[in-house]
Amino acid sequence: MNINKRKVSGYLLILGMIFLVIGIASDNTIFSWAAVAFVLISLVLGGRWLRPRRK
User: pLDDT of 16-32, one tens digit each?
Assistant: First the structure.
């Protein structure tokens, strides 16, 4: 099974933003920490910042 990391990264980013809004609106820190985790996983999966730069 071949997964597209860019699509998964986008979904995790959107899910993280939704969790962040829920966490801020309900003043619940569990949702806020989950949002931070989803955004970080999204950056690791689909981010270009981890790839080596060409010289």
Answer: 999 999 999 998 889 98
